[in-house]
Amino acid sequence: MLYHGVDLVEVARIRHAVVRYGQRFVQRVYTATEQADCLAGSGDVRYEALAARWAAKEACAKALGIGLRGLGALAVADRPRAGFHEIEVVRDNDGRPVLRLSGFAAEQAAALGICALAVSLSHTDELALASVVAWAG
Q: Which GO terms describe its biological process?
């Protein structure tokens, strides 16, 4: 069985949240590893990288059939949700993005019999996209 999730986010939306809420937003949504991956060599924030990781978290949640806690009006009130840190985008030894699940997200993946996840990230200056495919078998 295959499960798929895709998400598209405007980079400006993430930039606005970072500018408005600062580290409070960044720490709430992104793990320390994700934060480090989204800093340019100069230490400047790469908003498109943050947006791509946001999209990956959303796409993964869609593939798992769950929502993310903290999305306010976008979340369905009675639907179980995973925390932002429970879906983490890390890099493998070759630099490719991979997903690391924990907590409720990992429990849901196990309940669906998911044995592998693949994530693809892409972005322009304005938009970030993520696609997640989950294999159960």
A: fatty acid biosynthetic process
Structure tokens that stand for 9 in this block: 């986010």
DSSP-based three-state secondary structure for 16: helix
pLDDT digits (tens, 9 = 90+) for 80-95: 667 899 999 999 999 9
| CATH number of 26's domain | 3.90.470.20
Instruction: Judge whether 130 and 63 are in contact, CB under 8 Å.
Output: no
Whole-model pTM: value is 0.89
88: nearest Cα among 131, 8, 48, 30: 30
Whether the Cβ atoms of residue 91 and residue 78 lie closer than 8 Å to each other: no
Paired residues of 46 in beta bridges? none
Residue 122 structural domain? 2-136
Q: Are 34 and 89 in contact (CB under 8 A)?
A: yes
Q: What angle do CA 43, 46, 47 make, to 5 degrees?
A: 140
> What confidence tens digit (pLDDT) does each residue in 15-25 have?
999 999 999 99
Query: Would the annotation count 7 as a binding residue?
Result: yes
Report which of 28, 25, 29, 33 is spatially closest to residue 57, judged by C-alpha positions.
29
Identify whether the C-beta of residue 92 lies closer than 8 Å to the C-beta of residue 100: no
